[in-house]
Design a protein that fits this description.
heterodimer, A: about 270 residues, mainly alpha, MetI-like fold, B: mainly alpha, globular
Chain lengths: ~270, ~280
Amino acid sequence: MPTYRPGPVSLILAVLVALFLLMPLLAVIPVSLTPSRMLAMPTGELSLRHYRSLVEDPRWLQSILLSIRIGIVSSAISTMLALCFSLGVWMFQPRFTAMLVGFVLLPMVVPPVVSAVTLYFLLTSLSGVSSFFGYDTWLGVAMAHSVMTVPFATVLILVSLSQLDRRIDLAARGLGASVWERATRVIMPNIKFGIVTAALLSFVLSWEEIGVTLFITSVNAITLPRLMWMGLRDNIDPAIAALSVILIIITVLVLAVRSAVVRLRAGG
Amino acid sequence: MRGVLSDRMGAALLMAPLLLFLVLAYAWPFLGVVKWSFTLPTPGLGQYEALLTDDLVQSVFIRTLRIAAIVTVVSVAAAYAITVVWVRGTPAQRLIAEFCILVPFWISVLTRAFGWVALLSNRGLINTWLQSIGFISEPLTLVRNELGVVIGMTHFLIPFAVFPLASAMRSLDERVLLAARGLGSSRMRTFWTVFVPMTRSGIIGSALIVFVFSLGFFVTPAILGGGRSVMIAELIYLRIFQSPDWGLGAAISVVLVLFVGALMALLFRYVKPKQLV
């Protein structure tokens, strides 16, 4: 069967775009190996000192641990809330569903900077109530991240529910299963892939969140992106290059594993 | 009757936690921001009048619209080129294109902005290389200006522009293209007169997404603009944290939301939501 393939001109243009997309990711590799204390290309010898400073400087380790903690808590909150909400939508199909889903998706559509001002308002107001939840606390950041990630978790879970065969649930219902049993023993096992993906995506989004975090932290809750931001703005620290290289390698590995898994699932 | 009632209760119980969470943690504080815009520093419409008269605010708005427009055109064109190969290439070409689209997509905005600093700054890769081959004697200013911002934002937004285009190209009937070729139309002509017009909804969707995203962009302009080409989002940040003028920051936020809302309404008039993913 003949197929319509891109011609040589298309291929050349696509290669140029691909190079443009990969270029800044490749550029950080030489910078991370410079022996200099400042941002510069290595001239002659290479050094791993910036990789070492990631391990030796306690600030990096502290902010990595903080980002992991915030990521886990906010991902747990947003996945739970999104799961319950999506189950409600799918099982009962209440009126005004479209409007309610639209409302839930707002933090995803509103410009991030406006969400940031909004969450700044929220956390500074909460600071007056409790010193645990307010501005510049890790719980406050986790809550703000949940607001930002919950639309994505909801979309993923709703999409995997939309691929589920309603007759399974009808059968369970006809056989007398309660709402709880239908949700936990019939529906959830069938969308576990979607739930896990939602939790992972929420974690990743929280892990790299910077736009909102900048507005709601100052000196205490320094997440990893926040620390990178400080290193980028003031005096560019090549340790950021070393960290970037590590993050890029992790991303490439995860994507490679994911595409292998998808291929296996599709093949098997 | 009892069944209907318990259904409603079940739905309410399941859906209430998230709705309540977002009302308390998002809708209510947003109304608080709206209130700021009308009450700080003095009650009234003063901040909105300032928006219309303040030269700085005006120039930032105009710069933001200009940068967003340039970034939209460049990103959509670049995304189109790589999406053609991602959707219609040979399996190997598709795999490589997918890799080039998804790896940057998943890497944080900070790392990507930093990569551009490493490439474009005075002591960065490009300037070092051009100087070492003797092409230039003084480093070129590629960053801390609008050029740097446009490059960085385009890089960030290309993957987002790809998805609506890919969905439009996938749903396109291949037989039409083969028919055009079979009837003797050249590759170029088939592309411009058959392929591109048939992906129009994808182009519109992709352009609006990129445009809307670029209006509220913060991190990339702040790093690659170096404080010299401030866009709306950075202006909001500065008004709230550096020259505490919360009222003006809030008023700009409200205007930005209204503007983006209007654009989204436009988007959904032309494109169905499911065509965007």
